[in-house]
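Job type: complex structure
Entries:
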Amino acid sequence: MKQSKTFIPTMRETPADADIRSHQLLLRAGYIRQNGSGIYTYLTLAQRVFRKIEKIIRQEMEAIEGVEISMPALQRAELWKETERLDSFGDELFRLRDRHDKEFVLSPTDEEVIISLLRDEVRSYKKLPLTLFQIQTKFRDEDKPRYGLLRNREFIMKDAYSFHATQESLDEKYLEVMQAYTNILTRLGMHFRMVISDGGEGAHEFIALAEIGEDKIAYSDSSTYAANIAMAEVNVEYETSEEKLKETTKIATPNQRTIEELIEFLAIDPELILKSLVYKIDEELSVVVCRGDHSINEHKLKKALNVEKVELASEQEIEELLGCHAGSIGPVKLPVGVKVFADHAVASVVNGVAGANEDDYHLINVNPERDFAIDDYLDIRYLQEGEASPDGMGSIKFAEGIGIGHICKLGTSYSEQMKGNFLNEHGRAKPFIMGSYELGISRLIAAIAEQFNDEYGLKWPKHLAPFDIHLVTVNVKDEVQKQLADELYAVLESYRYDVLYDDRAERAGVKFADSDLIGLPVRITIGKRAAEGIVEVTFRQSGESIDWQKEEVLEKLQSFFSAD
Ligand code: 9G3
């Protein structure tokens, strides 16, 4: 493609509102343009990368009998009434009405639509298992769209849904999809980890490692254990000190409200503090206790208590319940009926310090069980870096990343609600057993850009780049250069290389800067030695430049592009 004939609007300046490298470079290199908050136009360079990513995804999904379809992004709201999810996503779900005032939603995901499709088409267990996938635009009215393509309101997702007659069949397909996703991300050249995640009856996420990532993972430094920090279990032994239990005493701690102030004021080890919070759980106020050097993981608290929502009580609710401020809450002498849930580590606290439920006072020498009852000991805290890995192998390290894939065993929750049934071998109607799987394709481009760039611009993995070769003439007015460039362009295209031919009448410096920004794997520069049939070849990944005779270009490119 001749650059003078295409649309690649590069920018010299970094747009002010672009706060991460991938966003800055995808804008400056002319890959994307913002059209509104969380709304982007993918320009030709991005489109060409999408096509290469989607080709790899289709190959790997079809290799595990994935069947591609395309479902409507406009969905009848009544389908979401069947799963009672129409209101569960609040403002994040785009809702609209048609001219007949019938209600619709813009697709944020397609569980409802695909079940409505199969319940009318698949009758018998003989037709199962079946895995359907699509590459389609999704809509989620994110509160704070940011980071360019990493969190926007209209995005491209590859979502797949599998339907099974037995749990074994789902377990088998789940592992096949897990391997397919691993193959896809490996072929994309990404640095990623698969981590234990949340969802359905078991789920995993695929995280692209990147400091700016919104996801945090905990992984073992000497095993394959890795989990989204929200899900990471704590499996450590706590030694209990042999110290004699002392008399609980109330002491004055004027204006000491935070754990940090208390540690300072009493000069004690935070491990001795019984940090107590009041949570609203299923509309009931309960006290949740953990050690002062730990913090409550609300995700694990929800799962441990098997409730939909947990929420910290407001100052006013605490005042009404205990007559004190949040910083003075303690588990001792609570009003009758107030449940106490404690993290396992609390059991090994001896002669601890706790709030007295009276401002400006605390209790010392507080001992669980003796001084307050615990309704349940639970694993409800965040795993900490350096602690033993839950699988007992090695210790935990943290890393940030971008969630790019999510696979989940849904089971029958949705199919039961939507009467998505099949007849089993005994002729009895059974709900489809389902799996659902997603890869965020818009995010993938941003994650790859985040992992492959340098101070000059993007550096695409060679088989993902929008073009293989950037053919650049230093001076288009120089007939010898132009003639050699045209000749090489024709030859390279005839050998099916994707060539971006910068034939613009621009200063060489501008061309080189644009070329580094755009980040194609190979640049062939036609310059002052064109008359000798010599071209300068620059490899973007290594930055290495070398002169080649024009006759040896094809053979040497062949070995570069065929090498892993
Ligand atoms: C919504 C809105 C946002 C959502 C969802 C629904 C996330 C929603 C979870 C999933 C799960 C699976 C298909 C592929 C695999 C993962 N955000 N999710 O369901 F209405 Cl506004 O999307 N979906």
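Summary: The radius of gyration is 30 Å. The pocket of 9G3 is lined by residues 89, 92-93, 108-109, 140, 159, 406, 408, 436-438 (CB under 6 Å).
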